[in-house]
Amino acid sequence: MATDTDAKFELRTFIFIDSMQPQLAQFIAKDNRVYDPNEYDASILLELAPAMEIHRMIDLALKATRVRLGSVVTERHFGLMQIQHPEQGEVIAAGEAVLDATDLTVYDRARVKILTKKIIRGIEQDHAIYFTGTSKGYMVLAGDSVFIFEVTPAAYLALACNEALKAANVKLISLRPFGATGRLVLAGPESEIDSAAEAAASVLEKLNRELDDHGGETDAHGQGGYGR
Questions:
Q1: Is the peptide bond before 50 cis (omega within 30 degrees of 0)?
Q2: Which fold is adopted by the domain 113-209?
């Protein structure tokens, strides 16, 4: 926690994505109202309280670096911003500018809690139609296996999704990385879904281990959890 004249800040989520996979970038762009990410951009998703303070942090990040604003979500308690740029250094500098302004580090972020990790194998046609009807991404076909992943805080699902897409040849069906809890749905061949599920869970478990290992302290370079 840190206090300035205006606010006492709480860091709910801090995520660094080194290379946004094409499906994730295009999924975000589909309903985006700000600046669409390019495939393979680096990105940071940062969520903090009070919610409206996110606008001051966006202003700071945009003025301090060449990053583009990807999305903004403001809720009752927390505000979320996504920024991106082809150069990782620009994104990292923007994240550091926000952390400096709030006197927080990446290790002040909330722990990830996995709520649901479920695989439906060889899905039936009626069930596939349900997922397709609620999808903003690809269709689910009969015989696909489906991975359902729910976590809190929700924004961590963006990183989980990106790592799953790196690890396996799967289809992004839906992703909700904001709100009290988030949900990710992927579909594909059974063996690929198994690999995707493992990658998604492993990267989030690693974030929690980093909190345990560092005890709230940044590393010697001050970059904390940027790398993997």
A1: yes
A2: Alpha-Beta Plaits (3.30.70)
